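Case study B.
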Amino acid sequence: MSVPGASLVDRRLPPVTEVGAASMVAVAVGVIYNAAYLPKHAQTAVAIVILVVAALLQLANVVLMSRIREFAWARFKQVAGWSLLAYAVIAGMIEFAFVYDHTRGTQLVILTLMLALFMLNVPVLIAFTVARYERA
Amino acid sequence: MTTAVEAPPRPAAAPELPSFQIVPIKGLPIVALVLVGIVVAIARDARWGLVFCHVVGGGLWTAIDLFVGFVVGPIIGRMSIPARIEFSARFMPKMLLLMPTIVTMTLAAGFQLARQDGFLDTSSPRHAWVVASFCVVGVMAVIALAYLEPANVAVLFELKKPQPDGRVIEKLMKRFVYTAGITGVMQVATLIIMTRLVS
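Model:
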């Protein structure tokens, strides 16, 4: 329970930033792995394993955050919403480049899913960092 | 004749925080213009447009990262808390718009140029350098998106509060300065890779 007036710096929270960063590492590895083989196809199984790892880490973050008591959820939602809009634009541009470069089939599906994970992860990290220093 | 009476010296007042927007709205049309420009350059396979976006964006990205990481960062680190707060209130909103736009511009154009030049093909002798640049960008993306940008936004929200917590600002600014330093070091690797690619 937080003490009114005490600095929020000392507040103990689950390692959402670290888990989110690990998920982003997995996404980066996955995209690099796929892009390194373009225009040929990288091994689908390896790419899927990386994708699943990234998705599981993000899922773990959802579970970790759902267990936090006294959190500034209103601020979290506000920041996450606007960040999501910004990163949807960026992800949309990257997706446009993939499609424009004739990426097709399984590879396009995997890259699109990785892009979706990236698009969802960054707003969570920004919003969590902001909300952890807000009083609920 | 009037006699000027000198006012007695007043005690130094606490520095007033400049009013600021977390996201500078005036800059959004410029961001939109840049993004539309990149999409048009990609869609039209406009070589000059892509080179322009990549060289200008890359130059700015590298220079800003090096300057912030090695020049501005250490200076901020030695500033007093009030000075740091005032500097952050003026500096951070601009960085919030500037950096994602420059990074998107550089990467989108660079990927298309690599494709046009055949560097993406695994048989290209320069393919390994392109993959190395992907790795460097990957590391920078993780640091920037997971640590640097959230700290940037959180500082701005803290500064908007009626009574900002100096410890929160100090902690977040420290994170900003350290991560900016790391991305600065990564930019040195980018310079080596990019000059190897075109030589």
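Residues 25-198 of chain B form one domain. The remaining cases will be described in the next quarterly update.
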